[in-house]
Every structure is written in C-alpha cells, then in structure tokens.
Amino acid sequence: MKIQNLLPNGSIVLLTGGNKKLMIYGRKQLVVDEQEIQYDYISVPYPEGHINEEHTYVFNHSDIEEIIFRGYENEEEQEFQLVLNSVN
Fold first, then answer.
1. Could you say which of 2, 46, 67, 87 is the most buried, measured as most Cβ atoms within 10 Å of its Cβ?
2. Is residue 2 part of a domain?
3. What gap in Å lies between CA 20 and CA 23, rounded to an integer?
4. Model's pTM, two decimal places?
5. 77 lies in some domain
6. Cα gap 88→85, rounded to integer Å
7. Is residue 23 part of a domain?
8. By its UniProt entry, which InterPro entries does this protein fall under (predicted)?
9. Mapping DSSP to helix (H, G, I), strand (E, B) and coil, where does residue 20 land?
10. In this model, does residue 84 exceed pLDDT 80?
11. DSSP single-letter state for residue 15
12. Three-class DSSP category at 63
C-alpha cells in the first residue's frame, strides 16, 4: 500500500511493539545487504540522536503505531513530497 505523503524529517514516532521513540531523519532509504530493500524511513533514537551505526533504524510507514510529533513542513517540504512520491 502506497502512502500519500511520508512524514517530514524531524518527526518523532513509536513503532508497533516498540518502547523507544525514534526521530526520522531520512526517507526512501535503500539498504543493500544480500539484496536491495527500500524502506520508507531511517531514524535514530529520541532524544539521544545519532550514537553510531548500530543505533540507526530503518522501517516502513506501516510499522508506525503512533505519531508523537510531526516534523516541520513548509513549501520546500511540499515540493520534496512530489519527488518522494515519484520514487518507487
């Protein structure tokens, strides 16, 4: 299922089954391991922020249980949403 718009950077979320808040800092992330997998978001723990690569998390919009805070949105963000929506 494709979502209309992804959450803006800076959004704080809690994932289903999670007990630690995460802050989104990137969208449409491609993870290359044995195969290429695209995720909707990349995030770090909140309020700590970036600790190291082991504390960086990727997930999809469908994994979100609760949106605690929605990041800053302006005209530039709205225009970037058009770019994001064009990426499969």
1. 46
2. no
3. 10
4. 0.88
5. yes
6. 8
7. yes
8. DUF4176
9. coil
10. yes
11. E
12. helix
Could you identify the residue written with the tokens 């992330």?
Answer: 29
Q: How many domains does the chain have?
A: 1
> b/e for 22-55, b at 16 or more Cβ within 10 A?
bbbbebebeeeeeeeeebbbbbbebeeeeeeeee
H helix or E strand, kind and range, residue 9:
none
| % of the chain beyond a pLDDT of 90 | 76
Give residue-wise pLDDT tens across range 29-43. 888 888 899 999 999
Residue 18 tokens, joined: 């999670």
> Is 80 among the domain residues?
yes
30 and 10 Cβ atoms separated by less than 8 Å:
no
Domain that holds residue 17: 12-86
Strand partners for 59: 41
Peptide bond into 8 cis (omega under 30): no
At which residue do the structure tokens 């969208």 appear? 27
Both tokens assigned to 54: 């082991």
